[in-house]
TrEMBL record:
Domain Dehydrogenase E1 component: 19-291
Gene3D superfamilies in alphabetical order: 3.40.50.970
Protein name per UniProt: Acetoin:2,6-dichlorophenolindophenol oxidoreductase subunit alpha
Named cofactor requirement(s): thiamine diphosphate
Pfam families, alphabetized: E1_dh
GO process terms (BP): pyruvate decarboxylation to acetyl-CoA
SUPFAM superfamilies associated with the record: Thiamin diphosphate-binding fold (THDP-binding)
Gene from which the chain derives: acoA
Gene Ontology molecular function: pyruvate dehydrogenase (acetyl-transferring) activity
Record keywords, A-Z: Oxidoreductase, Thiamine pyrophosphate
Coiled coil: none
The organism of origin for this protein: Brumicola pallidula DSM 14239 = ACAM 615
Length: 301
């Protein structure tokens, strides 16, 4: 026991603070959400991963409701029952799951349903590069290829699955190369730039909507805050940490350098976003916890 506890001192008390349990931050991966979700329409369906907040915000889901859900409050998307990994909004055709690669089947099913009903929507599943090694991923990709489903799998490649590197867990460098096995189109973006991602996602959606079959779109990105907040990432080599990029800063600089916006316009956009988040935090803190009497409402019992 003593040997086990050596160097395993918890960095934080998991029950403490405003957010019950841990939280998997999307910081660093914002470009993946903005560059892909903005290509989608209201008719399309999204299943997001256990790190779903950037995707949910890009889909236009109310930040106040997201924060209430994260804090387990009654005003949350699912009245506080889902928590930070399980964000759901029927109106936005959006859900997410703590089980990695879980969204593959539902997104492919929504793609099939949409085609059968002639609604023209596509199904998009978001997951991390490590989740691709889950058996369900391969089963669903295979059937999506067989049925030529209007389905896109967006892989956010941050190079880590908890503390295991992509090289240590995955036989090939790019998961998009797996597309050949599933009669799919494979695309890779290595810039973490929203414009580049938007362009490739546009190509992906045109392909999927045309009836040619599924697409695997892998995006190189960075997990800036570790697997979950409080993870000191000692296992990440120092040179890799030095190469980490924050796409929000890079994109702001790009827009300013290209003369799309001025520095002061950028500052005011950032200030507006901070205000919106501060207001949402305040709203969530003041929101009530779910009433214990409703504990069984909405559950399968
Ligand atoms: C089926 C299943 N197995 C294991 C886990 C535990 N788990 C949670 S996140 C994770 C790694 C995910 O890595 P990746 O898919 O690259 O996503 P990232 O965390 O990097 O965004 C694992 C193994 C899980 N949630 N579900
Ligand atoms: Mg990963």
């Amino acid at each position: 026991m003593e040997l086990y506890y050596k160097d395993k001192t918890p960095v934080f008390d998991i029950a403490a603070g405003l957010i019950p349990g841990e939280i998997h931050s999307s910081h660093g991966q914002e470009a993946c959400a903005v560059g892909t979700v903005f290509v989608l329409g209201q008719e399309d369906w999204i299943t997001a991963a256990h790190r779903p907040h950037h995707t949910a915000i890009a889909r236009g889901i109310c930040v106040k409701k997201i924060l209430c859900e994260i804090m387990g409050k009654a005003n949350g998307l699912s009245a506080g029952r889902g928590g930070h990994m399980h964000l759901y909004s029927k109106e936005h055709k959006f859900c997410s799951s703590g089980i990695i690669a879980e969204g593959m089947g539902p997104a492919a099913g929504m793609a099939l349903a949409s085609r059968m009903q002639g609604k023209g929507g596509i199904g998009v599943c978001y997951l991390g590069e490590a989740a691709v090694n889950q058996g369900a991923w391969h089963e669903v990709m295979n059937m999506a290829g067989v049925y030529k489903l209007p389905f896109i799998c967006v892989i956010e490649d941050n190079n880590w699955g908890v503390s295991v590197s992509k090289a240590a867990s995955t036989a090939i460098a790019r998961n998009s190369d797996r597309a050949t096995s599933y009669n799919a189109l494979g695309l890779y973006v290595d810039s973490n730039d929203p414009d580049d991602i938007y362009n490739k996602m546009t190509e992906a959606t045109e392909y999927a909507r045309s009836g040619k079959g599924p697409v695997i779109l892998e995006l190189k990105t960075y997990r800036l805050q570790g697997h979950m907040l409080g993870d000191p990432q000692h296992y990440v080599p120092e040179e890799e940490k030095l190469a980490f990029r924050d796409c929000t800063i890079d994109y702001k600089n790009k827009l300013v350098n290209e003369g799309v916006i001025t520095e002061s316009e950028a500052d005011s956009i950032i200030a507006d976003i901070k205000n919106e988040v501060d207001e949402a935090v305040e709203f969530a803190i003041k929101s009530p916890l779910p009433d214990a009497q409703n504990a069984l409402t909405g559950n399968f019992v």
